[in-house]
Amino acid sequence: MLLLVAVGAAALVVQGLYDAERSAMERSLAVAEAFAHAPGTAEALRSPDPTARLQPEAEQVRKGSGVDFVAVLDEHGVRLTDRDPALIGTKAQGVGRALLGEAFTETFHGRPTDAVRALVPVTDPSRRVVGVVTAGIEYANVGDVLVRQLPVLLGTAAGALVLATGGAALVSRRLLRQTHGLGPAEMTRMYEHHDAVLHAVREGVLILGGDGRVLLANDEARRLLDLPRDADRRQVSELGLGPGPTRLLEAGEAASDEVVQSGDRLLAVNIRPTAPYGGAPGLVATFRDTTELLALSGQAELARGRLSFLYEAGMRIGTTLDVRRTAEELSEVAVPRMADFVTVELLDSVLRGEEPTSAVREMRRTALRTTHTGHPLQPVGEVIRFVMADTPMAAALRRGKAVLVRDLRTARDWRARDAGGAERVLEYGIHSLITVPLRARGVVLGMADFWRGAGSPRFEEEDVAVAEELVARAAVAIDNARRYAREHEMAVTLQRSLLPVGLPEQDVLEIASRYLPARAGVGGDWFDVIPLPGFRVALVVGDIVGHGMQAAVTMGRLRTAVLNFSSLDLAPDELLGHLDEMVTRLDSQTATADDDHVPLTGATCLYAVYDPVCGRCAVARAGHLAPAVVDPQGRVTFPDLPLSPPLGVGGHPFETGELELPEGSRLVLFTDGLIESRGRDVDEGLALLSSAVAHADRTPEETCRALVERLLPERPSDDVALLVARTRRLSPSCVAAWDVPFDVTAVPRVRGEVSRRLADWGLQETAFTTELILSELLTNAIRYGAPPVRVRLLLGRTLVCEVSDGSNTSPRLRRAASTDEGGRGLFLVSQFADLWGTRYAARGKVIWAEQALDHRAAEPDPSLLFDVMGL
């Protein structure tokens, strides 16, 4: 009906549109013919100014006739009149047929507008075409009539649709009420299906009428209720169903899974009235035999409870990698759901994190959980010995599986180990025991004992399986905790051995440090303080990606490399360049040997060298965070130092930046674990760091303590290395320097000035040795070096003599032959100086020698001089 109404309405709309268009054409043709044939039109076209004569007439006709335009064209199709004066003088389109003398109508599409128009030629008395009159209605206005008629059409269609739908609904409702929507074939097929299903189901179905008579009973109901053959149309009370079923059926109330007894069967009865569902008053009852199901459901419920218990145990045992805590979790899970008392004993070697030994006859009680107070069991910490071979515990260890003692009162073997203690246990009311060995990977770790006391039933065989499963899970967790404790201890020991044991002695920096391992274990963060020649000190902080043994070993390798490279007295950028090459080489070598190796790329390092003479600190960093600088007034800055990629990336040069540090400034070097965490980004961490160190009067130790308390939790998620150094300057009175002319004759003069300066410092005892060292170094620089030559003395805890020149040639120590005229200078220096060496500057090199001042009275051995000279 909806489709028919829609098609009819569409047809009416199309017809209306067609009629409107035809009406427009007829009106346009009538207007055009009337104007074309009007007296004076042809004469006006032949006049000198036809537009002036015809324009008013055309507009008057247009307004009076209801068309949208009336235009007059000359014999060439040029507009002489038009509604739009701007179009007068333009040539019209599609008027060729009218110029030939044919009158016609059409739907025009083009300029100036789409329209329905009529074109009628104007002829003179000789039938010659002298012009054309065109009249029409714009196409957009053709449908106005249709639009005015459209509400009536749509309203009529809607009314027809409503009437048709209502009539169909009334007819359908009457048919559905009478036949339920089914024909004779469907009704027959439905009855057959109903009868087949009713008698095939494994539940008894009984339908009673409102008067309590049986209307229908399927085969299963007849079997379960033992109904007589003539049960149909009989009262329920006459069927001999027994008191339970009869009571429920006569009550006529709804019931759900009501269990009643019928003969030797237990039946689950469900009753529902039929009236609420459109049927006649009565009820439907279903019966299900639950005699065996009841027993099975009890067992299933028990098994479900045990599975739930084991699942909960799996979730609660082993939450930490701590051996003692795991044993306590085992006892907490088992009490009181499985036992009233639980004791756990472990081998001492397991408690220490070592491999279990074969001596399993002696264990230490690690956990004890009870539901009562004042129990007679041995407390936690005592040693439990299994010396008797026939006790349940010894038998469980020997067999490798659980042993059940249902009644402890009759267990003579259990009393044999400790008769007095056994009597106290029995007097307390403990009466049943399951003892299970804790085994993992085939090795005994300890024992778990489950006890039940007064008010609880004895253990049965089913409980043994649960206890074994529970203990097996706990044993794996304890073994994992033991192995973790061992590996963690090894990693911590290794890392502690690789980190600086103590800070070296030096006078130019007051230093404090911290290292905090991560919660998950040791990591690869490290720091170092390295004294350098000339009282300079190198500060190092680095971070290796990852945690564990590999990170600790890698940290040790990089720290050793930094120590070795620093002994060459390299500039910070050169040292990081060598370190980067070493990391790249290690990665390439290890990758070829082991595909599972984690590359070192990503390791970061910051290397800083502080010079107390000038107060400058040269810093180079490879992917590491910039240090914080706290000036003597407590202002905190993070200097913008050149940043290079992490170690191992390769292909990028390293740069060195310089800091001017006034005396008393603090330099704070740290790894990212100090400021960065899951709940805090780097910027927030740097802000907290600034507020923690922004105090002018704090020592480095106090600064370290404040940073740890303010920024770190008790167990940080990442390891942290922290180094705080407060600067000191070498007094100008302890520094002496001379520019030396590039002439050997200047050596005696400089030697004399040095001797006088040593006298001013009260170091006359070292004058001879110092002059000897200075003479050899200065002569060597003038003879083999290049200008400029400079001498500098530094006085601190030691005396340092430095000679610099403009040559990059490094001197080499060798033993001169007896026939050689030279080659003994550096050998003399090495014999009389405590330390000596060479370092390269931006231009040239510096040869230095250091003398200790704690044995000032010591003089050079003349015999050694004679040996060196070959005398």
Automatic annotation (TrEMBL):
Origin species: Streptomyces achromogenes
Entry annotated with the keyword Ion transport: no
A Pfam family hit: HATPase_c_2
Subcellular location: Cell membrane
PPM-type phosphatase domain: residues covered: 506-727
Predominant cellular place of this UniProt entry's protein: membrane
Designated name of the protein: SpoIIE family protein phosphatase
InterPro entries hit by this protein: Bact_Sigma-Reg, GAF, GAF-like_dom_sf, HATPase_C_sf, HATPase_dom, PAS, PAS-like_dom_sf, PPM-type-like_dom_sf
Membrane topology (UniProt): Multi-pass membrane protein
Domain PAS intervals: 192-257
Keywords associated with the record: ATP-binding, Cell membrane, Hydrolase, Kinase, Membrane, Nucleotide-binding, Phosphoprotein, Transferase, Transmembrane, Transmembrane helix, Two-component regulatory system
All copies of domain GAF, residue ranges: 318-488
Keyword Hydrolase among record annotations: yes
